[in-house]
């Protein structure tokens, strides 16, 4: 057996044909990012299944299509500073790091923070800073951010994150309860977010001050 590389190309073909992902720089970043380095050892051979996979601690690495839809919506530029809430495996940060200047990513579960750090190191990534803690509070040391992404189900968009987003900046987050969330893209205009919905998805719940209580 071994890693099924053709499944990676199959996914790319599926995205191109269905026009789900049209940004070729994003497709290149996906190609350059070894998902097999971000899953648990028993899942290495099936790293390119289009499913979420457990990474322990009741958390998951999102399915490739979902990760790509979210990153595409961020419209990343190579000068962007990005804040991510929910490092998980570090996979989403790894793809984004290839399309932006710097990623600051928060992870609330200490063991997963270390898992993400280890995986990003295996992928030789140097422009991602991982911070242990509650990302819903944002991180004012590095604000404002060009882009913000939340990779867990949020009851609503956390106000500190809206405040720390640049004017014209983009925030992407799944908003809603545990039985499915609406993927929201918000563009900041005059201190408010102009919202657009991108369909329904299912994520693990966001914790922390502006998340769901534990
Ligand atoms: N982006 C990840 C998937 C993340 S799953 C990847 O590519 O693998 C969601 C993650 O968010 C989990 O690891 C969970 O522990 C983390 N999380 C939940 N609430 C959080 C919070 N308030 N601050 C930081 N991380 C949080």
List its salient traits:
214 residues; alpha/beta; seven-stranded mixed sheet; two-stranded antiparallel sheet; 6 helices; 9 strands; 28% helix; binds S-adenosyl-L-homocysteine
How would you describe this structure to a colleague?
It is a single chain. With 214 residues, this protein is of the alpha/beta class. The protein has 6 helices and 9 strands. The strands form 2 sheets. The protein has a 7-stranded mixed beta sheet with strand order 5-4-3-6-7-8-9. Strands 1-2 form a two-stranded antiparallel ribbon. The mean pLDDT is 96. Bound molecules: S-adenosyl-L-homocysteine. The site of S-adenosyl-L-homocysteine (SAH) has 25 residues, from strand 2, helix 4 and strand 4. S-adenosyl-L-homocysteine binds next to strand 2, helix 4 and strand 4.
Summarize the SSE layout with pairings.
Blueprint: H1 5-18, H2 24-32, E1 53-56, E2 59-61, H3 64-74, E3 81-85, H4 91-97, E4 102-107, H5 110-122, E5 128-132, E6 145-150, H6 159-163, E7 165-175, E8 181-189, E9 192-201
Bound molecules: S-adenosyl-L-homocysteine.
């Amino acid at each position: 057996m071994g890693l099924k590389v053709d499944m990676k190309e199959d996914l790319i073909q599926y995205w191109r044909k269905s026009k789900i992902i049209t940004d070729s720089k994003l497709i290149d970043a996906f190609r350059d990012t070894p998902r097999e380095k971000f899953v648990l050892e028993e899942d290495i051979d099936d790293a390119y299944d289009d499913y979420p996979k457990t990474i322990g601690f009741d958390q998951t690495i999102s399915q490739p299509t979902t990760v790509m839809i979210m990153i595409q919506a961020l419209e990343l530029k190579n000068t962007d500073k990005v804040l991510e809430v929910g490092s998980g495996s570090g996979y989403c940060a790894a793809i984004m790091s290839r399309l932006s200047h710097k990623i600051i990513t928060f992870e609330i579960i200490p063991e997963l923070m270390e898992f993400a750090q280890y995986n990003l190191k295996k992928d030789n990534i140097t422009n991602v800073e991982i911070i242990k803690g509650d990302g819903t509070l944002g991180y004012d040391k590095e604000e404002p951010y060009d882009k913000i992404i939340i990779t867990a189900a949020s009851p609503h968009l956390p106000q500190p994150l809206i405040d720390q987003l640049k004017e014209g900046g983009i925030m992407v987050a799944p908003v809603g309860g545990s039985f499915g969330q609406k993927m929201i893209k918000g563009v900041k205009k005059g201190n408010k977010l102009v919202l657009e919905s991108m369909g329904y998805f299912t994520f693990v719940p966001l914790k922390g001050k502006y998340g769901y209580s534990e």
